[in-house]
Structures are given as structure tokens and as C-alpha cells.
Design brief:
Layout lengths: L1 H23 L12 E6 L2 E8 L2 H6 L11 E11 L2 E2 L8 E6 L5 E7 L7 E2 L4 E8 L2 H4 L11 H4 L2
Parallel strand pairs: 2-3
Antiparallel strand pairs: 1-2, 3-8, 4-7, 5-6, 5-8
Length: 156
């Protein structure tokens, strides 16, 4: 019993000292890599987008990814237009969210930092959100008002 009494303070100190290191570790989990894909265009630029159309797919989104190719993104599809708000919980790469109208017009763009749990929302009700690597839209000189192309925008 005396040995245990002497070990408890040392064990408690070790746990306290390791807590900050654990807090800095990336979240654990598996990225979803097997979603259906669609091709979108932004002017002359092609986007290979995974489609997150179910509630579970949208909830997981791009979480747990270490990287994403520059020409790829994720298109979130909602049943009805609404103000859509996104956060970066468990998301390790910096992203830009394009909030997109039914006809493919970009309503607004928002840069988001990894692991930031603040909400970033659309400027108006939209049905689609396209997440790309941060800087992709700026490098292509795309901003609010530009129109994306693709079959998904022709169906509505």
C-alpha cells in the first residue's frame, strides 16, 4: 500500500504533463474516400468533386484528411436551399467553402482554418457547398458571382 501511495502523485503528475501534448495531436478517425464523384467546371478549370449527399456524408465531409489533390474538392448537396453553416472540426487541411446557388452561381466564399470550430455561413440560402483547398479559388480569380458548371446544376 505504501508503494501505491508513493506512486499516485508521480502518476498524476505524468498525466497532467502529457495532457497538453495529447491536446495538440490530430484527431483520430478515417477520411471518407469512397463517395460518388462528379465533374464540375469553373471557367476552363475542371474539378473532380466527391459528392456528400446524405446527412452522414455531409457530417463527416473532409474530416481526417492529411491532404487533397489541387483539382479535387467535395460538393455538399442539401435537399432544400437554406443558410448553410460549416465548421472545421477534425478537418486538418485549410479549405475555402464556396456557397453555391441552384444554378451554379457562387453566392460567397469563406476561408476556413484547420480544426476551427467557429461557424462559417452562406450569405443567402443555398443548396450546394463546394470545399476546395484554400487558395484554389483565388488562384483561378474566381469570386462571388462566378458560375460553376456541371450536371448537378442542370437538374434543378
Amino acid at each position: 500500500m505504501k508503494t501505491l501511495t508513493r506512486l499516485l502523485p508521480a502518476l498524476a503528475a505524468a498525466l497532467l504533463l502529457s495532457a497538453p501534448a495529447r491536446a495538440l495531436q490530430p484527431p483520430t478517425g478515417a477520411p471518407q474516400l469512397d463517395l460518388p464523384r462528379t465533374t464540375l467546371t469553373a471557367g476552363m478549370h475542371r474539378i473532380d468533386a466527391q459528392v456528400a449527399a446524405t446527412a452522414q456524408q455531409r457530417q463527416t465531409g473532409l474530416m481526417h484528411r492529411q491532404a487533397m489533390p489541387q483539382h479535387e474538392g467535395m460538393l455538399f448537396v442539401f435537399e432544400q436551399p437554406a443558410v448553410q453553416c460549416f465548421w472545421m472540426k477534425n478537418t486538418l487541411i485549410p479549405l475555402t467553402a464556396a456557397f453555391v446557388d441552384d444554378d451554379g452561381t457562387i453566392a460567397n466564399l469563406v476561408d476556413m482554418k484547420p480544426l476551427d470550430e467557429r461557424s462559417h455561413c452562406s450569405a443567402r440560402p443555398v443548396r450546394y457547398v463546394l470545399e476546395m483547398n484554400q487558395g484554389w479559388f483565388a488562384a483561378k480569380h474566381l469570386r462571388a458571382g462566378h458560375r460553376l458548371g456541371g450536371e448537378v446544376f442542370k437538374r434543378r
